[in-house]
Amino acid sequence: MKYRNLGKYGLKLSEVGLGSWVTDLNGADAERIAQETVNTAFDEGVNFFDCADAYSGGAAERFLGKVLGEHERHEFVVSSKVFFPMGAGANDWGLSRKHITEQLDKTLLNMRLDYLDLYFCHRFDPTTPIEETVETLSDLVKAGKILYYGVSEWSPVQITEAIHIAKENNLRPLAVIQPQYNMVDRYIEDEIMGICEKYGVGITPFSPLAQGLLTGKYRKGQPLPEGSRATWQADKQINKLLTEENLDKVERLLEIADGLEVSLSALALAWILRKKQISSVITGASRPAQLRANAKASGLELSGETLSAIDEILDYHPFVRRIG
Question: Which residues are catalytic?
Fold first, then answer.
């Protein structure tokens, strides 16, 4: 496993991280497999683990905290997020000083930690001034409860405003963003990636395998694999990606992966890591074998010829994307 700095900062992240969004905790067997997957991540050199308060209503934080507690604190970097409703009250959501402060305390309790390495604003809150949010996060850094803060799905304007508010008010800076980025969703290349490079902000993208589309498990003209995300995901995000156009691209990308003797998932992750602005890719893995396959992307160098062939397949054209 290779490691990269978080933007211009000193923190080192494994090129491949492990997220908790789709971690299955339903039943003793599922939890055992999830625990084996996290421990396999350590074996593979993964040191970055991502979570959120909203994942499984806090259960994902409690599970991850329990497993990470079996390891020394210096061995891992852990993040969580705040924004989505965690109760029925008027102040149980958003990015107000009250909700951020109270929810971080719950997250630290859930995860059995004294501090988080990274803390993200999950979405933008139009009901709270950015100044209030940035000042609160800066105060939490000063208090030692978080080391670095960032945002997830924010627009270029919102990200830039947060950066300038921190600078103008001598506050701790926004250090990282966690947007969606993969071969079929490249919107951050148009503006956000340039902003991050200019200000030294790290990028730790989620959904790097496009909900599983880029694993090669979904094939044109074939039934959905039993137990795959497309058979149970409530919001059907993966199903919306299973278009004829995308499945045609998968077939052509599989040919490139086969020619390099790597999995499609490793190819797709290495393609993201081709960008120096990327600090780590947050992958999902439901079992140890998937984690090991994803870890092979670290250090996988793609030639200019391979990258040109991929670009021809993807045929990307900049577009306006609704964020959040």
Answer: 55
